[in-house]
Amino acid sequence: MKNTRKNTKKSGKLSPELQNRLAALLQQGCSIEAATAVVGISRTSFYNWMRRGRRELDRLETSVQALPEGEESIYADFWRAVEHAAGELEARNVRIIEEAARGGGELIETITVLDSSGEPETKTTRIRVKNLKPEWQAAKWLLERRFPAGGANPVWKRALRTARKTAPNKANPIFRN
Fold it and tell me: For a designed S-S bond to 35, which of 21, 30, 61, 82 qualifies (C-beta 3.0 to 4.6 A apart)?
């Protein structure tokens, strides 16, 4: 019997169009599993492409005279695009949390979406929020995740100690020891 395993595998060759679609989905907040399902590739392909991209970037960084190798350069570009999308997603959500912690301001959300033809399109939304009560929980949540183990960064530790000493409202849980 002929081996048909190759025919049942999800086909997908990395292209700039596929890279742009994946990056747009990841920037919107889709999980890797959902994004790969939408574009029709396997998670294994995604992770293999990421590994190849990181390997090519490492090779280029270790040698001053190294030049991108033909086919491998597309994987390096893919790795950069995925990392950029993840950074954009994180930065957008940190801005939202910071605004909640401050109790207002202007939220500017810029996202890349796919238009009807599948091409990425950037959309910007501005929302003006005023006079909301500052949400200390949002700041605490962000600090706990950014600096686990009680704020391992010495600068933040000093800032929190100072805040506790000068806090106008000692009953606020963020200032408890």
Answer: 30
Q: What's the CA dihedral at 49, 52, 57, 60 to 10 degrees? A: -140
Q: Show the DSSP H helices in the chain as ranges.
A: 5-8, 16-28, 32-39, 43-62, 72-102, 136-146, 148-151, 154-166
Residues 3-38 pLDDT 10s: 443 333 344 599 999 999 999 999 988 999 999 999
Ramachandran assignment for 47, one of left (phi > 0), alpha (psi -120 to 50 degrees), beta (any other): alpha
- The token pair at 104 is 């207002």
Instruction: Look at residue 112 and give its three-state secondary structure.
Output: strand
| pTM reported for the whole predicted model | 0.59
